[in-house]
Amino acid sequence: MSEERYLRNMTLLSPEENDRLKTLRVCVIxxxxxxxxxxxxxxxxxxxxxxxxDGDLFEPTNLNxxxxxxxxxxxxxxxxAAQERMQKVNPLVRVIAVTEQLxxxxxxxxxxxxDLIIDALDNLQTRFLLQDLARELAIPLIHGAVAGWYGKVTxxxxxxxxxxxxxRHKDHPGLEQNLGTPSFTPxxxxxxxxxxxxxxxxxxxxxxxxxxxxxxxxxxxxxxxxC
Amino acid sequence: xxxxxxxxMEWHPGMTLADAIRAYGSKYDxxxxxxxxxxxxxxxxxxxxxxxxxxxxxxGTRIILMYEFWGG
Lengths: 227, 72
Description:
The complex is a heterodimer.
Chain A: H1 2-5, H2 15-21, E1 25-29, H3 33-45, E2 49-53, H4 78-89, E3 94-98, H5 107-111, E4 116-119, H6 124-137, E5 141-147, E6 150-156, H7 162-166, H8 176-179, H9 184-202, E7 211-216, E8 221-226
Parallel strand pairs in A: 1-2, 1-4, 2-3, 4-5
Antiparallel strand pairs in A: 5-6, 6-7, 7-8
Chain B: E1 2-4, E2 7-9, H1 17-24, E3 31-33, H2 36-41, E4 52-56, E5 62-66
Parallel strand pairs in B: 3-5
Antiparallel strand pairs in B: 1-2, 4-5
């Protein structure tokens, strides 16, 4: 069963790379729109351990886009829902649920020991905290963000200050406040985040380091911008 | 007065954002963030079709105008 499970990964990943994934630990901060899809895809790839971090509970407004939100999980912990779903999808993956928000007080203890961090947050304050902690702990960070038809992804290695360069107006509301978030944008951005994760974890391909992939699905414009 | 990448600029009614960027100069790097409130003022743009815009300056520099967002 376990060998068959990963058979379709095998032309993309060698058996050795597939085995390596089983030994790695990824921390996903946020289990909402981006985070739910990230966890799903990382688990189906066979990443050995996923830490799912989110202090929120599901509410009806999450149902339009968050993979882990359904009629049965409303009012339940997002992090625990991630853990429970992965038991059904791929029980070979160990999911640790952290049912609290990432803070300066708990951040180091949550993040340390991981090989990679996925930034699936929805606010700038915690995203900057996460960049600082990732730098301090020397862990690569995959950043993703969405609003309406738009998405962006960048990969931040320890020592990079990409978020600081990207976000200059922290006091204003983000565009997502005006545009909302449909079902398809988080799924797309999360898929690219996981692709970046695989490249970083297995040292393959060309990650988006010092580059921002900016996607405008409204006009099908994909751009890579140096940053 | 408008702010483009924290840089204050004179703005006059009827001035487009592209005009403002050109007035700002072509030495700046390729990524320009514009606050949505400012974008909605300049040229009476709305949020549905003008969230991103590309401007090519006279020297060939391409500038990407982008709203800030950080939803998850």
